[in-house]
Task: inverse folding
């Protein structure tokens, strides 16, 4: 599991609109419109995360869910696994009408 260079991170972020780099983490906040919509989104992401063995930090608020992703096993640095999970989260969020 290789740590990505700054150039690689920048290129991968360009392919994931809405995601931002914050140090050695990528983050995105989705508006769910209602609290229970956020809970449903989180449960769906958690199911996929369990299957792939890679997890996001999650912050649930009344109408928003924020995901923060880094690879803890790589010393809390960014790897390709983080961007793969971000793309999966985008797909799941779209199915939940989260923007």
Result:
């Amino acid at each position: 599991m290789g740590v990505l260079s700054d150039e690689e991170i920048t290129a991968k972020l360009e392919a994931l609109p809405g995601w931002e780099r914050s140090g050695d983490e990528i983050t995105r906040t989705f508006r769910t419109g209602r609290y229970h919509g956020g809970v449903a989104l989180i449960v769906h992401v958690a199911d996929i995360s369990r299957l792939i063995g890679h997890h996001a930090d999650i912050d649930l608020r009344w109408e928003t869910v924020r995901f923060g992703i880094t690879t803890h096993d790589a010393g809390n640095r960014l790897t390709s696994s983080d961007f793969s999970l971000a793309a999966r989260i985008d797909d799941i969020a779209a199915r939940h009408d989260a923007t």
